[in-house]
């Protein structure tokens, strides 16, 4: 993509830091080669990661929590 659908304007977050894609019924987070990396539930990730409800994604110091649309 040439643009961001969600922008988090904070120090430590790359311009194109990561993405969440829907693949069938699953949602997958992928770090896009960001400078500071990404963590999910306390572990650094380098490969695409299948998200589950409640997973905590850290982009630098910013915390995102993955929820089901019904939560």
Describe the protein's architecture and organization:
- The protein has 71 residues and is mainly beta.
- 0% of the residues lie in helices and 39% in strands.
- The protein contains no helices and seven strands.
- It has a four-stranded antiparallel beta sheet, with no helix packed on it.
- A hairpin with a 2-residue loop joins strand 6 and strand 7.
- 10% of the residues are buried.
Q: Please trace the helix and strand order, writing H or E for each element.
A: EEEEEEE
Overall pLDDT, averaged? 91
Structural class: mainly beta
Radius of gyration: 12 Å
Please give the number of β-strands: 7
Q: How far do the termini sit from each other?
A: 29 Å
Q: What ranges have pLDDT less than 50 throughout 5 or more consecutive residues?
A: none
Main beta sheet: strand number and arrangement? Answer: 4 strands, antiparallel
Tell me the helix content.
under 10%
Strand order, largest beta sheet:
4-3-6-7
The number of helical segments is: 0
Shape summary: globular
How much β-strand is present in the residues?
35-45%
């Amino acid at each position: 993509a040439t643009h961001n659908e969600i922008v988090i304007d904070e120090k430590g977050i790359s311009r194109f830091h990561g993405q969440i894609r829907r693949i069938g019924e699953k949602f997958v987070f992928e770090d896009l080669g960001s400078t500071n990396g990404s963590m999910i539930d306390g572990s650094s990730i380098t490969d695409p990661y299948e998200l589950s409800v409640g997973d905590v994604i850290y982009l630098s110091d910013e915390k995102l929590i993955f929820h089901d649309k019904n939560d």
